[in-house]
Structures are given as structure tokens and as C-alpha cells.
Amino acid sequence: MTDLLPGDKPETLLITLSGKDRPGVTSSVFTALSGAGVEVIDIEQIVLRRQLILGILVTAPHNAKKVRAAVEETAASLGMTVDIDRGAGDNKSRRDGRSHVTIIGTPLRASAMAAVAGRIADAGANIDRIERMARYPVTAIDLHVSGADTDALRTVLAPEAAGHGIDIAVQPANLLRRGTRLIVMDVDSTLIQGEVIEMLAAHAGYEAEVAAVTAAAMRGDLDFEASLRSRVALLAGVPATALDEVYDAIVLAPGARTLVRTLRRLGYRFALVSGGFSQLVDRLAEDLGIHFSRANELEIVDGVLTGRIIGPVVDRAGKAAALREFAAEIGVSEAATIAIGDGANDLDMLNAAGLGIAYNAKPLVQDAADTSVNVPYLDAIMYLLGISREEIVAADAEAGFVTPAPPIG
């Protein structure tokens, strides 16, 4: 408590120091303030390229001049500049309507940041804090924004993402971003590069035909189940050993293993839900340490593919149903799930999830998803979850993994 004379009112001061960072700056400032009997209301501090900016909001007693003198003397001894402004209260009015706006660019240009900041201001919102999540191999920036509805921000920022060739994800700032979550991923052209059915069709001499039908189905031009059965029929007579050859040729999306191992350390659960084939998807799940998998089963008789599927087809509705089933099994709400996919077959799953991410997806899917990631690194999705590249590299180093060093700059 501060001692006020009758009729005195406490004065709110915003103290901002800036200058070269060094050990002991924050300690020195608060030592000076402690002698003036102030009450600390809010603190923000950042260090950028060894330059410190420290903001402290305090309620000063009647001897505000003593506070100013103490802080100015300390700043001078540290070789730093200081600004002291009068204010009123804390910044509670800015705390309503809080969102995280994550921006990913390769590169991220000043013009794009200007456009994003402008639209946030137009929406009546304020950028309270800015954090760098990554600088290599993409630049990722997280903005803490308050004062506007999350959906409204998403709407006004979507055109800027398209116009500037960047990815922008807008999410509510709530506990779900930090809690244990279930991540459900598509496989073909999401977790892995390419389409497995096309690789199998190459063994039957129908790769081009199957590729054309697959592309149409992923755009949403064809009924998925009918198109899948017609494509699988072309695989009749292919030896089952081709499945092993295809599996050995599968190339994971860059960052896939990093994504899984990092989030598993944090308690996340994973599922693969695919319109592809269980003979391959289940093996991928086992290889990567993924908890659940759901896919179509190819019929094999006497060591040969028959061109038929056993059981019901995992289609759009089947993928969404699998997401709900896995979430219920581990006891998390649908709001705590994340779905990642690229094709029309993923739309129901993306809509069912708390956060639906279109990953290098078809235009139809990008328009329907909560957000899009169009860089070729699956682990960039972690930046949307508030996990920085520096944290990922540090965790890998502790576990004995070696990650590429970023360029100097």
C-alpha cells in the first residue's frame, strides 16, 4: 500500500526504457522503483538484436516527482533513454476480443506487414504484442491482437493473404491453443508427397488415367466413392508385392517427422485418416508413432489385388466420423481437434475440427478451411500453435536430434 495525503489521487505512469541490453537492466529499474513505493500494474519487455525495450505501467503515490527522478537517474547510469508519460488505469479495455494472428511468408515483405497492420486497425483492433516464431526456412510472426472479433479479423485479413502471397491464421486466444489436442491428418499430398494410388497404378500401366481422375476428385468435380472404386478396379492383377515397393518409394512432406515428434513430447495425439489404403497408411502410422489410423482396405486374393475394396469406403463423411470417434476415445472435445488436409474429400473433416488447416490445398478447400498453409513445410503448422522454431531446435538438441542451422542474418 502507498501512503496518500487526504485528497491526493494516485497517478498512473507509463515508463518506457530503451537501449542496449545487458544483464541487470530490469533489476536496476525495479530497485529504483521500489524506493518510490509504486504499485506495478503491467510490464512488457522485448529484446530485438540486443536492443531492449522495457515498458512498465505503475501507479505512483503523491510523490510522482520522486518516481520520475529515480527512473531518470537509473536510465542515465545505464546509458539508456527513458520516456515517462501520464496515463489512466491499465489496458483492460484492450483485453476483450483477443486473437492470435500468425503470419507466414517466404519472404515476408514490409508491404505485407503494412497491409495486415492496416486491416487490423481498420477493424478497430490493437496489436498488443508481436513475437517472431521462425526466421528459417520461413518467416513466421505471431501478433497478439485485441479489440475485435476473431471471425471478423479472419474475414478482413483473408484478401491480404491472397494478395500478398502469405499465409495468415487467425485463432481465438484461449486455453485450447495450449492444451493437449488431437491432430488428424490426411495422407496423400499432405503427410506424404504425391498420391499412393497413382504409384500403384503405375504397376498396372494406368498411372496417367488414374492421376486424371484423382485430380478431378480432389477438386470436388467427382463423387469420391465412385471415382475411388473405378480407380481401384484398374489395379486388378497387380501383385501385392507392389505395395512394399510403393511404401519404400514414399517421400514424407518436409517437416513431417519434426511435427509429430515435437508435438508428441507435448502430449498431443495423432491420427491418420485417409481415402487411401490401410496396407500403407497403417505402416506409416507405426513408423511415425501415430496413435490412430483409418483408411480403405484393398482386397488381396492369392497374393494379387482384386481391384475391389473390403468394407465401406472412407469418404468425406467417413473422415469426419473418424475424427469424432478418435476424439471421443481419448476424451477431448471436437473444439480441441486440428484437421489437416488438401482435397475435397477432407472438407467435412476440416469443418468438424476446432481448427481446420488447408495444407497446400485445392482452391475449394482453402476457401472452406479456417486457415491455409501454403509453404512446403508441414512443421510450419506448429507456429500456429505458438511454438517457435527456436523451441523446436532446442527440444531436438536435448533429445539428440540435429536440425539444420539457419543462415546468419
Automatic annotation (TrEMBL):
Cofactors named for this entry? Mg(2+)
EC assignment: the record states 3.1.3.3
Q: Which CDD domains match?
A: ACT_PSP_1
Question: Which portions of this protein are annotated as coiled-coil regions?
Answer: none
Q: In which pathway does it act?
A: Amino-acid biosynthesis; L-serine biosynthesis; L-serine from 3-phospho-D-glycerate: step 3/3
Q: Which PROSITE patterns match?
A: ACT
Q: Which reaction does it catalyse?
A: O-phospho-D-serine + H2O = D-serine + phosphate; O-phospho-L-serine + H2O = L-serine + phosphate
* Record keywords, A-Z: Amino-acid biosynthesis, Hydrolase, Magnesium, Metal-binding, Serine biosynthesis
Q: Per its UniProt record, what Gene3D superfamilies does this chain match?
A: 3.30.70.260, HAD superfamily/HAD-like
Q: Which domain of life is it from?
A: Bacteria
Q: Where is the ACT domain?
A: 14-85
Q: Does the keyword Plastid apply?
A: no
Class in the EC hierarchy, top level: hydrolase
Record's signal peptide: none
One Pfam family name from the record? ACT_PSP_2
* InterPro entries assigned: ACT-like_dom_sf, ACT_dom, HAD-like_SerB, HAD-like_sf, HAD_sf, PSP, PSP_ACT
Family indicated by similarity: Belongs to the HAD-like hydrolase superfamily. SerB family.
Protein name as catalogued: phosphoserine phosphatase
Gene symbol?
serB
